[in-house]
Amino acid sequence: MRDASFGAAYWAGRIAPHLVIFAALITLWEVAVAQGWITSIMIPRPSKIGVAIANLYVIKGTIWEHFFITLGEAVFGFLIGAAVAILLALFSSLSERFERYVSPYAVVLNVTPGIALTPLIIAWFGYGMGSKIALAAVICFFPIFVNTLTGLRQMDPDREELFRSLGATERQVFFKARVPAALPLMFAGMKIGLTTALIGAVVAEFAQATAGVGVLMARASFALDMAGSLAALLSMTLMGLLLFYGMELLDDRVVFWRREARMSAVSRAKARAWMARRGQRDEKKNMGGETT
Amino acid sequence: MALAADMAPDAARLKWRRRGNHAAIFLGLLALWQGGSSAGLLDPLFFPAPLDILASFWRIYVSQGNVWYHLYVSLSLVLAGFTAGSILGVGLGAVVGMNATVRRFLQPYVIVLEATPRIAVAPLLIAALGFGPQSKIAIIMLVCFFAPFINTLSGVINVNRDRMELMRSLGASKMQMLRKLVLPDAIPVIMAGERLAMTSALSGVLVAEFIQRDQGIGALILTYTRNLNMASAFACILTLTAIGFLIFKGMEMVDHHVAYWKNETGMKRMTEKRARVWAGRRGGVAHA
Known about the structure:
The structure holds 2 protein chains of 2 kinds. Chain A has a domain of 201 residues: MetI-like (MetI-like fold, Orthogonal Bundle), CATH 1.10.3720.10. Chain A is 84% helix and 0% strand. Chains A and B meet through helix 1, helix 4, helix 5, helix 8 and helix 9 of A and helix 1, helix 4, helix 5, helix 8 and helix 9 of B.
């Protein structure tokens, strides 16, 4: 209890200065625009942006439909791109020949700015969600591919030797040593990939779409409704944060051994499960002893 | 010695054979593609025939020659935006990174800006700055600013504490520390940021041109696709691939030169140069 209150006070002490500075900046901005030091066409007043956000989220609630469409496009695209990237990286790490013949094409894909494919992909997949998903998948492919492949390659030779000397099979070496060693880098790649997937979805929406946050923002900007446009941009920021921290959470869960706290939590849970199992066995044994 | 001499041609032969294999596979794929297109198996909307693409290359580069102007427009924008944005990024990153308090208060904003898809600011900037090159340059600047900024920041923060202590105890000034320790230490990371910035600059100009469809290679691609002239669109995209590759190689070369201590040949080159300069100076002194 005391610990918690101490923690709260500590956090308040850390966060308060940030909040004060933030409030001061916003006030300064508001005053500057109100006084006409900055043209309000270029940079709208923070209060106007606040109103636009309220409009978007609460009063009219237009954002929700668009928000989830864009989010869905980014996530679907990411899932497709990541699946292909991880599969190709797995095959490449298993077979040197496969890698030799695939990697030049992957490199060509990488040096081509993926954004350049936008009009083509829209011509191929139409104006709907399909083209956005496709662009997101193409754009997020490379960072995941490279990171997974690098991760699968960089195995401590000593560790591999140890595995072999303990009589591990090829498959055990792969799944118990190589894949876990690759996971941290793979997640780093997926974090980059997820943000780029969002960029792909949004850019495709700018180019041609009927729904999505990108459309909302483009419409607002072309109507010179800067406050509305900024509000839409901030929703993209929110989406980016959501995706990034979601990935971070997954990273924390899966690659638990990298963080002290998670490591001890997982080992506690494992110990508990093991003890429970042993307890059950002992109980059974005891029961068996009683009956005979 | 004899063994090494025997090995060398073998390795070379293997390398050439592999290149031959690569070329054979590539040509095989192309032939398959062309055959499929000619036989009408492949939809020309998705896969324009390789020969058509080749013809388009000839048309946009030579007979019609319209790509040059658009390339010039786009690339000069990229260069201007990249230079301004990355200089701003590195400078600000170095200044901010040196001061712990500024860093602490800037951090939340950096996190928020990191999460925002940067290119998404494009319509906003176009609305604010109007149609024309200025808004395009602003977009590229913004896109190019972040990677160098973040990388410089992290490079400056992660400078070796012990070395810093040593320099301080030897009485180095703040400027000396920045020039002799912090920047050299951070340069590999900064260069990685510059590379990222350069690639995103290319994407930035394309997005700007997709929205503001007046001129530039992005507008050209858009026009060709709108007219369903896929072969020409492919030719433009392959041009961008080549440019992307050149940029990649160019940045790698710059990296080798700037961070010369990271690779053997660069290190040797620099050592020799310094030895020469030093010998010359000493010779001059002896003459006097």
